[in-house]
Amino acid sequence: MKAAEPALLDFARELRQELLVEAAAEGSEALLPEVLTRRMLETFVEIGEVENVADCYLKQRGIEVSGYGIDDGDTLNLVATLHRGEVPPSSVPRSEIETAFRRLRGFWERCRDRPLHESLEESSDAWGMALEIHRAASNIRRIRMFVITDGLSVVEYLEPETEDGIEVHRSVWDIGRLHRLHGTGMRGEPVEIDFIARFGRPLPCISPDLPGADYAAYLAAFPAPWLADIYEEFGARLLEKNVRSFLQFTGKVNKGMRETLAGDDASRFFAYNNGISATASEVDLDVDGSGAAGIIRLRDLQIVNGGQTTASIHRAERGGIDVGHVAVQAKITEIEGDRLEEMVPLISRYANSQNRVSPSDLSSNDPFHIEVESLSRSVWAPATGSTMRETRWFYERARGQYADALNREMTRARRRVFREIHPTAQKFSKTDLAKFENAWAQRPWEVSLGAQKNFTAFMVAQQEQERGDIGRDVAYFQRLVAKAILWRRTEKIVSAQAFGGYRANIVAYSIARLSHATEKALDLDRIWQQQGLDEPLEVALADLSHLVFKHLTADDRLAANVTEWAKREECWARLREAQWDLTPGVAELMVSADVAARPTRMENGGPGQGTATNGSSPALKEISGDAFLAISSWAKETGNLTPWDRRFAHTIGIRLNRDKPLTEKQVPHAERILAAAQELGYDPLKEP
Question: Fewest C-beta in 10 Å: which of 32, 366, 479, 668?
């Protein structure tokens, strides 16, 4: 084997252990191929290989598929998984790779020609996948097929083919390629443009003299067809550092650009448009006899500002608009590779913008993520069960950080200690964070959009008033972890119900509905302290999951495809109004809304722990549990007090009747509820 064998073996061993942990959390090692698929699809989205892809499994005679997605309405992504589960990694013969591609092609043809969905169960994920592909078939002009495997393959690419006017691209992602990707910090394979080979001539440019600068800059006028051609091949990989990668054609500016390109003013596009800002790690120049310079090659090309311009031109050309006489001004900054991560986010942030964008650059270098990372390295989670060992929740601000940190431990013993302190099951990424937060914030339709689009929506929403005051203190981190525990435990609960599909959507909508039913007043501090959920809460989530499944698959849904229905805000609006009452015991796991929003207390025995008290007012010392139960019944019958106050009064009544003193958190709310009832004419102290 090659000299890199030890590093690859370590990587393969780590990957297998992580897959085993995740599969065990879902209840079965049989799920290992599915876990590998999800891991790789998340990676594809992270590095910009694809924009839209989800795991979905179907195997029949002559066809087999593990995942799919449709980008821009005309590019179909199909994925097949070959799971080996062996360390050292075993080889995957070329014949097996070709068979996997042949089965993917067979799946596409069955969806296109013979409505495959008509032979599938309507409640299954596979039915929705086949139906969506069948409906999009007439618009598909490019198919990208991926075979992923934890084995080693001698095949990485197969030559592109064209069949019935459709381009078919095929690539293999084996464990060696994944290992190389992690070695580059998950930046993805570099985009390299050879202008002479691709377009037959250099890109003319000028380079200003910048004394003392630690970079070089070039100004050029990009022919619009060139820009469209580059975007056609590389897509989202060009925009990994662009703040607007996923905004697409939603704003007036984007529509205006399209109208300009299609109208009589197309020749004025150069004058009207601010152009693009791009970066590269290497710029190769050619200078002719007259001294005129031209760029012949760019390496590590990234469009950090002007992604909307690029996408607009690409879509306009694809839509039949002639952009041959359009040029786009471009500023290209050459930065040495080791300084790209530092400089690119700053260029992206400060470059002239055409759309209003939040100050966040939506990258892993945003201060928000840096602060969460810092907290994750310092905050200890409480010990649970019989062990006295505290652990940490490891936040991967950039994918691959966990493996890097582990590999920095020089001995096997130190790596074992690292894993004990930072269990793999307690690792989460920035897209996970956005998923946990948006589900709890009652935005499950955004979660259903997919990891990257949900992440973008979360970061933009932070600038809105309702979530603009998120603090990055210990209290925030503890409650974030509580939401992570809530999400991951709900995944297991939903898996146990054996719905047959749509787990991610059911989880997001179940948590959102629980958040709505409790008015976000679930005691997250209690979840943090226990590092788990109380049984009444698990029962409630199981009950909710059935409500959600029936809602998502109902015959009167507004989209035939369940996953597409889950992406609509109307889907949440309907579920929010659906009748569902808190199951027994959940009300006792709630605190008041203002306490839930308040930073956790660090005294009195730890975060979120209130001290017991007999009450701080004479009225509370005199009142019985039955009196608070009476307040709850009176309020429900008359429609007085808020739903939360009614439930809280009932909780207080039960607690007092069990001879349990009120906690420090509960006292002020008990006093307030009692005073509110008295002001409305109901005084339990005077009632017979």
Answer: 668
How far is Cα of residue 613 from the mean position of the Cα atoms in its chain?
A: 43
Rounded Cα distance between 234 and 173, Å, is 17
Q: How far apart are CA 96 and CA 77, in angstroms?
A: 20
**SS3 assignment for 189-208:** CCCEEEHHHHHCCCEEEECC
Q: Can you tell me the distance from the alpha carbon of 544 to that of 49, in angstroms, rounded to the nearest whole number?
A: 36
Instruction: Specify the pTM.
Output: 0.60
DSSP string, 442-509: T-HHHHTT-HHHHHHHHHHHTTSTTTTT---SHHHHHHHHHHHHHHHHHHHHHHHTT-SS-HHHHHHH
Amino acid at 650: H
On the question of pLDDT at 235 being above 50, the answer is yes
**CATH code that applies to domain 5-183:** 3.40.1350
Please state, in angstroms and as integers, the Cα–Cα distance from residue 409 to each residue in 85, 406, 414, 637, following that order: 25, 6, 6, 64
| 62/102 Cα distance (integer angstroms) | 8
Bridge partners, 92 (sequence order): 153
Instruction: Give bridge partners of residue 395 from the DSSP assignment.
Output: 428
Ranges 311-315, 423-427, 612-616, 659-663, most confident: 423-427
φ, ψ of residue 154 in degrees (nearest 5): -85, -10
Q: What are the pLDDT digits (tens) for 395-430?
A: 988 767 787 787 777 777 888 888 889 988 899 988
Q: Which of 126, 197, 139, 195 is nearest to 165 (CA)?
A: 139
DSSP H or E run through 73: none
Q: How confident is the model at residue 203 (pLDDT cuts 50, 70, 90)?
A: very high
Are 682 and 631 in contact by the 8 Å Cβ rule? The answer is yes
Going from N- to C-terminal start, the domains of the chain cover: 5-183, 192-350, 369-580, 612-679
- DSSP state letter for 381: B
Contact 434, 222 (CB under 8 A): no
